[in-house]
Amino acid sequence: MKHFEIALIPGDGIGPEVVAEGVKILKAIEKADPNVSFSFREYPWGCEYYLNTGKMMDDNGLELLQDVDAIYLGAVGYPGVPDHISLRELLIKIRRGFDQYVNLRPIRLLNDSFTPLKGKSQKDIDMLVIRENSEGEYAGAGDWLFKGKPEEVVLQTGVFSRKGTERIIRYAYEEARKSNKTLTSISKGNALQYSMVFWDQVFEEVGKEYPDVKTYSYLVDAASLYFVAQPERFEVVVTSNLFGDIVTDIGAAITGGLGLATGANINPDKTYPSMFEPVHGSAPDIAGKGIANPLAAIWSVSQMLDFFGLEEWGRSVLQTLETIVKQKDRLTKDLGGQATTSEVGDYFVELLLK
Ligand SMILES: NC(=O)c1ccc[n+]([C@@H]2O[C@H](COP(=O)([O-])OP(=O)(O)OC[C@H]3O[C@@H](n4cnc5c(N)ncnc54)[C@H](O)[C@@H]3O)[C@@H](O)[C@H]2O)c1
After folding, report:
1. Residue 116 placed within a domain
2. How far is the CA of 79 from the centre of ligand 1 (A)?
3. pLDDT of 258 strictly over 90
4. Burial class of residue 123 (count of CB atoms within 10 Å of its CB; 0-12, 13-18, 19+)
5. Structural domain range at position 139
6. 266 and 204 in one domain?
7. How far is CA 250 from the centre of its chain?
8. Start and end of every Isopropylmalate dehydrogenase-like domain (predicted)?
């Protein structure tokens, strides 16, 4: 019997609505498989918690989470709390504190009708973006000098350490080798003459150990164009924190929107727990209406199952996703259907256990 303890941080807005559906899937798997069990610990952290306590999470939050097998997060952020507070004092604190230096974002078209790209189909859009998740442009280094004065100056420093750059690039080469796919690095060496020239250099250096992996290297502006015009160029992609954030939103746009985009924050050494979450935010515009699409959050469950070594279940969840997206009447409004969030979850379980 394999047992996994999962910390739930449903968060704000639609976060709790979509997390509830992901948990529904995990509970269904537990019921169907006598060799697997899950237990859940829920934390009420997020913007409402901040408004009541002045903190996004408890001071000893990381300590409380340290011994779980995974963290399952909905979304944080809500009007009334500045986004840089909600993001930095919870999400980034966990990613950073638990050295979740790999952000895995699959960009895969599950249904031809979801892409706005003319002439592109499922065979053209199937990639895995590996985003550096611990430093780079989001390292939080900088200064704000002479605030409010005419001579005001702000500095936001990108931080690219050899250790941090090498380990993410090596992880990507390993992934490309394992899956027998090409590897594309996205950078910007022509304009960022320190950080990105260094990135390109490390990509080449590490590549010498992987002569079997076919590689490409694009500037981020060209890569953004190719994401839209020729997404079939990409299989495994490795890039920095900021560029990864942006190009994966393009990825979401060409595959059906944010309701279908997932991301895993991985600590590959398993020294700390990893965190699984949909890419979307708390969507205050639709929160509480029961119409949020839970499929991105459910896709995160598939990534979590893979991470636990339950790959068969991970695959089944993904296959069920591919099946459900072909039945428009079973989907939420953002994907052209009429179903509610919990109806999608219920039907998903039915299909999964069929
Ligand atoms: N990981 C996170 O927790 C995270 C990520 C992004 C934004 N945020 C925060 O969320 C708040 C809202 O940000 P935003 O509006 O820029 O982004 P958002 O992702 O919350 O919403 C953008 C648009 O996509 C729609 N959308 C998002 N998820 C959906 C879903 N599952 N089903 C159907 N429609 C969906 C929303 O209705 C909205 O129109 C902000 O406070 C922001 O900081 C948090």
Report:
1. no
2. 12
3. no
4. exposed
5. 126-253
6. no
7. 13
8. 5-348
Phi-psi sector, 52: left (phi>0), alpha (psi -120 to 50), beta:
alpha
pLDDT, tens only, 95-104:
999 999 999 9
Last residue of a domain, one of 217, 232, 253: 253
Residue nearest to atom 40 of ligand 1 (CA): 77
**Distance of CA 160 from the midpoint of ligand 1 (Å):** 29
User: Where does residue 344 rank: exposed (0-12), middle (13-18), buried (19+ CB within 10 A)?
Assistant: buried
Mean pLDDT of 296-311: 97
305 shares a domain with 247: no
Q: For a pocket test of ligand 1, which of 50, 258, 265, 275 has the largest count of ligand atoms closer than 8 A to its C-beta?
A: 258
Are 239 and 277 in the same domain? no
- Tell me how far the alpha carbon of residue 303 lies from the centroid of ligand 1, in angstroms: 20
Percentage with pLDDT > 90 across the chain: 94
Tokens coding 217: 């290297």
Query: Within 6 Å (CB) of ligand 1, which residues are found?
Result: 14, 18, 75-78, 83, 86-87, 91, 258-259, 277, 280-286, 292-293, 296, 334
Q: In the chain, how many domains are there? A: 2
Instruction: From 202, 228, 253, give the residue that closes a domain.
Output: 253
